[in-house]
Specification:
Structural class: mainly beta
Radius of gyration: 29 Å
Helix content: under 10%
Number of helices: 1
Order of helices and strands: EEEEHEEEEEEEEEEEEE
Oligomer: single chain
Largest sheet: 8 strands, antiparallel
Strand content: over 45%
Length: 265
């Protein structure tokens, strides 16, 4: 007897995978899927008679959408939404990162940075600002080659800032550091999400026997993230939502938007 299921229990979508349609290279994989939704739509054109009664309706420009929310913030998904690639740092490809520190001024009137600052030699840190005991800002010191009132000097290699003798308490310092252990995702105004192929992996159960589990895949040959409205929650309990527009290749004979595959084995 052939495998020919009808009604199934959809337990969950276990993963969404993005592939480059030209090379079939995996470009993103998301595994914490909530609220997945697959929709189709079409534009209706009515043919009417002289009285305005509908004789027939033609449906054109059919397309689909696939929406889901990832429970966790995903850098890969953000990169896909922004139409860019995740930049992974290495020793040969270091990333510049901003650092902000509040440092207690030592008895020798110095403040030691946590990282080695980078930038203009001799002015890797341009300003420091005193933080008063009541957490307000106090005097601002400016970098200088020589010590003096309202000035500070910096030894970047030693990560040390030397302040005037009357400086005490804490200072706020902002600077840049180089790191080989970081990633970056850039959003540009001149880039849009690329077209991808999606594989949406599902787990199904037989409604008459819950021990029978079937693997399913929804395959979308052409899916492009909708960049018209992208929101990433920055709250601790926030989610990461994405919406794809599904379409056919314009010049292709095959008009398939997606197919739903269910396997017994």
């Amino acid at each position: 007897m052939s495998f020919n299921p009808n009604e199934l229990i959809l337990e969950k979508i276990r993963a969404v995978e993005e592939y480059d349609p030209a090379t079939n290279e995996l470009t993103g994989r998301y595994t914490q899927i909530e609220e997945p939704s697959l929709k189709t739509s079409a534009e209706a054109t009515d043919v009417t008679d002289a009285m305005g009664a509908t004789i027939q309706t033609f449906y054109n420009a059919q397309k689909g959408t696939f929406d889901f929310t990832n429970s966790l913030f995903s850098l890969d998904l953000a990169a896909s939404q922004y139409g860019t690639a995740k930049n992974i740092a290495s020793e040969a490809n270091k990333i510049i990162m901003p650092v902000s520190e509040v440092i207690t001024i030592g008895s020798d009137h110095t403040a030691v940075l946590k990282y080695t600052p980078v930038g203009e030699p001799g002015a890797e840190v341009k300003y420091v600002k005193v933080i008063n005991a009541n957490n307000t800002f106090g005097e601002t010191y400016t970098v200088s080659d020589t010590a003096g009132p309202g000035k500070f000097t910096i030894d970047a290699a030693a990560r040390t800032i030397t302040l005037p003798e009357n400086a005490s308490g804490k200072v706020f310092v902002n600077y840049d550091k180089e790191t080989s252990t970081a990633v970056s995702v850039v959003k540009r105004t001149d880039s849009v999400p690329q077209v991808k192929t999606l594989l949406i992996h599902a787990i199904f159960h037989d409604p008459c026997n819950k021990n029978l589990v079937y693997a399913g895949v929804i395959r979308c040959p052409r899916a492009q993230i909708d960049p018209s409205s992208t929101e990433i929650s920055l709250k601790v309990d926030g989610k990461h939502a994405a919406s794809y527009v599904l379409s056919k290749e314009y010049f292709a004979d095959d008009s398939k938007l997606f197919d739903i595959l269910v396997s017994e084995d």
